[in-house]
Amino acid sequence: MRALIFRFALFAAAALAALPGCGRGPDTSTTADALPREALATLALIDRGGPYPYRKDGTVFQNRERQLPDKPRGYYREYTVPTPGENDRGARRIVTGGNPPEVYYYTADHYRSFRRIDPRR
């Protein structure tokens, strides 16, 4: 049931974000299945509510780069997507919006660009 709610929330958020005038944001999207397998594992952790392997996971993402639509502070949260071979958190992240999450974004380049995660799997 929770997975169904998760998919519906992703679909609704993607549909709303696609409407004209809904703010800035990534011009591209990707399906969850097109993400690295580590990102799928991170999405599953987010869906379960943790536990998260990194201390910074679940903390507020401030959107300083202004790559995502403008929202009040605390709207966005960030989660690490582990990178094989890296000794630290690496550059890959999933950023969620809303509580519970309504929209999901993936970045492979440490916030320089984002792809909205399309709910169709």
TrEMBL record:
The record's GO molecular-function terms, alphabetically, read:
hydrolase activity; RNA binding; RNA endonuclease activity
* Pfam families from the UniProt entry: Ribonuclease (PF00545)
Signal peptide start-end: 1-17
Q: What are the boundaries of the region Disordered?
A: 74-96
Record InterPro entries: N1-like, Ribonuclease/ribotoxin
Tell me where on the tree of life, at the top rank, the source sits. Answer: Bacteria
Q: Which Gene3D superfamilies match?
A: Microbial ribonucleases (3.10.450.30)
Q: What is this protein called?
A: Ribonuclease
